[in-house]
Task: structure prediction
Amino acid sequence: MEVVKFANGILWGKLMTWLLLGTGIFYSIRLGFPQFHHFRHTFKVLFGSRRSEEGGITSFQALCTGLAAQVGTGNIAGVATALVSGGPGAVFWMWVTALVGMATIFAEAVLAQLFRVKNKDGTYRGGPAYYLEKGLGQRWMGVLFAISIIVAMPFVFNAVQCNSIVAGLRGAFFSNVKEGGNIELYLGIVVAGLTAVVIFGGLKRIAHVAEVVVPFMALFYILIALVVVIIHIQQLPAILVTIFKGAFGIKQVAGGILGHTVAQAFRYGMARGLFSNEAGMGSTPNAHATADVKHPARQGFVAMIGVFTDTIIICTATAALILISGQLGSGETGVELTQLSLKTALGSWGPAFIAIALTFFAWTSILGNYYYGESNLMYLFPQAQKGPLLFSYRIAVLGMIIFGAVSSVPLVWELADFFNGLMALLNLVGILLLSGVVVKVLNDYERQLQTQPDFEPLYKRTDM
Result:
């Protein structure tokens, strides 16, 4: 236990934060700041992403599958914790991580598209394990990445997500049920059952569910936040001033709290932003590899929308709810603070709404995390696309979901953090060493954008 904690202290200390941030800055500069230069074009690509080239997974479905995992409990509980620990200034640094992370995730999606492989059913799979082997020629790195993501995301992190679902629903709807009863087990079985219906349908069913559920849950949550902002619109200028003051050295924060410094705002804002949008972590490329598009850069642009939506829009929505409510100094944190904030702003139904939103956010994360594990299982064992190994994997994932509903084992979470840090480190090394390939792809896209709007399929060419 102590050895794992020590390793996590190194991985998740200054090393990983600066490496993730530095990679985003590096790619922003090397690619000519595509998140700004191509911002309008990014949405043009998104609006044309509902059709696939060969009837497979559409670009929009791949985005929603990635967002399913990106948008989770961190967008509700994590933002609240960042505000409590870092003050309103943390919001500004979340925005910064999103802006630089958009360049990082562009690179990840492009590489995932370039080095992907085709499944027997005509769909694609890919991700860091694939480009670490095929792009760098380092299969050992691909194998280590695949093992790390399988341990961390479909197993332990899915258990964490289910634990959050159960805690939220219990607090909102089953608070009168005594502790130690079976309600947690029953809720865990329900979550596992709903998950089973989707994951046993394969990638196409996961993508179809994500395409419907993710936009609905995100838009509904954002709409509620907008209602709160509109009702309290007179407070908005003062809150924006408070955010910028908190980010650049003024200690006074919302609610009259003193003591937050620039260092705290930077630390917690960066951490929340980086780990919420997952840019550079190596998870979302597994989803973006599945998109059926002619040119890899197109999926890179769509992937940037994922980071923008997760952090700039949804995390900001949560921050707005909390800051407008004036409950930042209430002593609450995490989900409880967000629930209290919405209750203060809109009435007694606030906690129930947050519990429902948290349930949708966490459940879709379970689906996305499951697929990341499946894709990497197929990397390790390509012959297991159908058969007992895949079936056993699915049963094990469902078992961990139920386990997460009724358990909390600190060592398990520490191991998850370790493997998550390891996979991020391997992925960052890979995308930095392959940056020249990403530059060539973007240059090719920009050239064709001017001369050949229909785009020549890049995958069949040999000059890249």
Q: What stands out?
A: The mean pLDDT is 82. The CA atoms of residues 39 and 110 lie 17 Å apart. The longest helix spans residues 139-173.
